[in-house]
Design goal:
The protein is mostly beta strands. The protein starts with a strand and ends with a strand. It has strands spanning 2-3, 12-15, 18-28, 36-43, 49-55, 59-62, 65-76, 79-84, 90-94, 110-116, 119-124, 128-136, 149-154, 159-163, 171-175, 180-184. 0% of the residues lie in helices and 55% in strands. The mean pLDDT is 85. The radius of gyration is 21 Å and the shape is flat. Strand 4 and strand 5 (49-55) form a beta hairpin. One of its GO terms (molecular function) is translation elongation factor activity.
Amino acid sequence: MISTADFKNGLTIEVDHAIWRIVEFQHVKPGKGGAFVRSKLKNLRTGAVQDKTFRAGAKMEQAPIEKSTMQYLYEDGDNYVFMNTDTYEQLEIPGDHIQSELKFLKENMEVQVTLYNGEVLGIELPNTVTLDVTDTEPGIKGDTASGGSKPATLETGAIIQVPFFVKAGDKLIVNTVDSTYVSRA
């Protein structure tokens, strides 16, 4: 059991039969009445974000979240197969659990798989990945002063905005957090 005094960003708790990660929190001591904690929580199963208020000193269960490094092997129908790099055990994750991560997932990539009592909650990609450009419009010669961008399709099927000088066949470093171009590899 933990109390609201133990709150910190990133901590996982169980409230109302759901698993939540604390995104942000604030201890409030009004001039009149008891102190309370205002928090913003993210549901790890659904991804929904909710504001919740707790009495100061309220107790709740800490959710035992495990993270293990796994390597993405292949797609099997609607499932994606990952292998634990320590034990070589394989794990199938349904595609609807990792929908937003699929646009940057590439075979043999190592990711962090988040588990709660054996239940897969999702995966965390590295902050940046190196991917090939498969298709983009040719750049306009001399159009570098405008600092504009054009869409480019990556080998995983993701479409991101890139500078005009990028051409098909280039290797790019892409930020997976906000889906942006970082640099050429």
